[in-house]
Specification:
coiled coil; 2% strand; 196 residues; (apollo) hypothetical protein; Herpes Virus-1; mainly alpha; 63% helix
Length: 196
């Protein structure tokens, strides 16, 4: 039994890399057991997938890749410097957004108040119009009452102009005024004729 260098599990059989001397199971080695057995003497020269890939190439200090990397890093540094003020700008934008939301809320409240005031003003205007109509009616009624009072005064004066008042004669129940008037006229030598 051995521990596979690829998956770390225990296995009973598998190839050994001729370069790194690590042992792998057939699945991690990338070869079937039958295929590995058919290699014959070449089994001793078998290499694992890592060793087949070879070591990574490291660029030389003067290679164009390093100068390009330096250029990219320098550009990134400049970009970072340019983007640094954006953080405070974003905070300012958040603050402005909050202020705009607050202003919008205040405007909505102001619109509601204006609508209420507008409906109140309309109600007051209709009441004032009704009051003005009533005032016109009242002045017309006053003029009519004055006219009626004048007519009553004229009628009262006309009715009184035909009346006479006699004092000193005792009043009796069921007396005949026409008869009484004739008697008084006869006593004064002023005959009164009864006209109906």
């Amino acid at each position: 039994m051995f521990t596979c260098s690829g998956c770390g599990l225990q296995h009973s059989d598998g190839p050994v890399c001729s370069l790194c001397k690590n042992r792998y199971d057939f699945g991690c080695a990338g070869v079937t057991e039958t295929g590995f057995r058919k290699l014959g003497d070449r089994k001793n020269n078998w290499r694992c997938p890592k060793c087949k890939a070879g070591p990574p190439l490291s660029p030389t200090p003067n290679s164009p890749a390093i100068s390009q990397m330096d250029s990219v890093l320098e550009q990134l540094s400049h970009i970072n410097l340019r983007l640094a003020p954006l953080a405070s700008l974003m905070e300012d934008i958040k603050s402005i957004k909050s202020d705009v939301i607050s202003l919008k809320s205040s405007l909505e409240m102001a619109h509601e108040l204006i609508d209420k005031f507008s409906s109140t003003v309309k109600s007051l205007e209709s009441r004032i119009a009704k009051a003005e109509e009533m005032a016109n009616d009242v002045s017309g009624l006053r003029a009519e009452i004055t006219k009626l009072n004048q007519e009553l005064d004229i009628r009262d004066q006309w009715a009184r102009s035909n009346n006479i008042e006699i004092r000193g004669i005792p009043q009796k129940n069921n007396e005949d005024l026409y008869d009484l008037t004739q008697k008084i006229g006869n006593m004064c030598n002023f005959p009164v004729k009864k006209k109906i």
